[in-house]
Amino acid sequence: MATALISDAVRSALPVTIDDVRAAHMRIADAIVRTPTLHSRTLSALTGAEIYLKFENLQFTAAYKERGALNTLLQLPANTVGVIAASAGNHAQGLAYHANRLGIPATIVMPTHTPVVKVTQTEGHGATVVLHGDTFDEASAHARLLEKERGLTFVHPFDDVRVIAGQGTVAIEMLEDVPDIDLFVTPIGGGGLISGMSAVAKAWHRPIEVVGVEAELYPSMYNRLHGTDLPCAGDTLAEGIAVKEPGGITAQMVAALVDEVLLVDERRLEEAVSLLLQIEKTVVEGAGAAGLAALLTHRGRFAGRTVGVVLCGGNIDTRLLANVLLRDLARSGRLARLRIRLKDQPGQLFKVARVFDEQQANIIEVYHQRVFTTLPAKGLIAEIECETRDRAHLDRLILALQSAGYEVATVEPA
Fold first, then answer.
1. What angle do CA 214, 31, 84 make, to 5 degrees?
2. Distances from the Cα of 23 to the Cαs of 17, 96, 165, 167, 361, in angstroms?
3. Percentage of residues in the chain with pLDDT exceeding 90?
4. Which of 133, 165, 326, 382 could lock onto 20 through a cystine, CB 3.0 to 4.6 A?
5. What pLDDT digit, counting tens, does each position of 279-302 carry?
6. What pLDDT sits at residue 377?
């Protein structure tokens, strides 16, 4: 992988340069949101680094993907019949929105089982949605077939020099707004965003380190760089960067320009999404929180640095977000489910509830179990879901229950 210093010869030989990114920025500046780059005092104190967040979740379609899509659309020939892409995520909406704004017909091919909300949102931006295949690969193959049949122009979500240059405009804005940034921590899916940002970082007037972040379940770029064969599969919260194969162009640029690629697990991704909502009052999808997840996982790696982190998207299902927040409350001890062994006698629940009252813990739900248990016939299990102030408060509640003679076990979240 790259070192902090890259020679001019190496940079100029790459498919995308800082000049390409600057040209893209001039091209698209009037039609995208110049999102703020803001210092987070709380996250900085938490991680030991000075953290600056780029709020790309504030784009109209709630993701940075608009930049690359628009830069590509603005360079198409005047006689372009229309554009087509395969995507069930942010690329679909970014391309559809700007194509519609420019009067260019757009077709988006999505897997058959794509959630209805994503289909509706993409159609709402004026695109024609074609549902085909059970997987993204099948949808992509069908898109390439329609490209030929209908004379359309295929717009790749990441492996295109115009797309890469457009995504790199994120780095231009961050460095203009916060000149002191000396390290970027950037999510990697296919590699378009980090390729464009590293093209800027390594040609800046001073060395800027670039660290990429992948979900542990989808280490595709990590595999490419290290020659490893770690599996790429599973249900990750960071679905926006769940890519099994990075691009050829992007892999070349990452190998030349990116200093390191780190992996983050699902628990850290969930924690990062929750912290961003609690601390920054901003909704970020799993992929958008990957940079913060890396900072939380590898605190020593970034301590003392001035770090730019891109919150690259905010399109997360509301039910999934609710689940993430509740799981985080459970891990922090503010929400708990306690399994308590009782005697099958009158007044037992009353006596238990009295302990909760004495400890000022709020009971949310009670589940009584007599049948499906290994206890004797006269024994029973009560599972009580409750709210506490913090882990210490929960520990005091458990101790009080044990002191009252009850056997208590916590039901831990995954």
1. 60
2. 10, 23, 8, 12, 59
3. 78
4. 165
5. 999 999 999 999 999 999 999 999
6. 54
Equal fold, 8-63+162-326 vs 82-151? yes
Task: Please state whether 304 falls in left (phi above 0), alpha (psi between -120 and 50) or beta.
Answer: left
CA distance linking residue 399 with residue 74, whole number of Å: 66
Q: What is the pTM of this model?
A: 0.89
Q: What class is the 82-151 domain?
A: alpha beta
**Do β-strands 306-310 and 50-54 pair in parallel, antiparallel, or remain unpaired?**
parallel
Token pair listed for 68: 């690359």
* Nearest by Cα to 223 from 246, 253, 248, 197: 246
Residues 112-161: tens digit of each pLDDT:
888 787 888 899 999 999 999 887 778 889 999 999 999 999 999 999 99
Fold classified for 8-63+162-326: Rossmann fold (3.40.50)
Residue 209 near residue 3, CB atoms below 8 Å: no
Question: Which residue type, as a one-letter code, is found at position 312?
Answer: C
Name the superfamily (CATH) of residues 334-410.
ACT domain (3.30.70.260)
pLDDT for 23-50, tens place per residue? Answer: 999 999 999 999 999 999 999 999 999 9
Residue 228, Cβ density class (10 Å: 0-12 exposed, 13-18 middle, ≥19 buried): exposed
Tokens 């942010």 sit on residue:
90
Nearest to 34, CA basis, from 177, 210, 202: 177
Look at residues 385, 365, 382, 363 and name the one whose alpha carbon lies nearest to residue 373.
382
Q: What is the C-alpha to C-alpha distance for residues 386 and 202, in angstroms, rounded to an integer?
A: 51
Q: What whole-number distance in Å separates Cα of residue 215 and Cα of residue 213?
A: 7
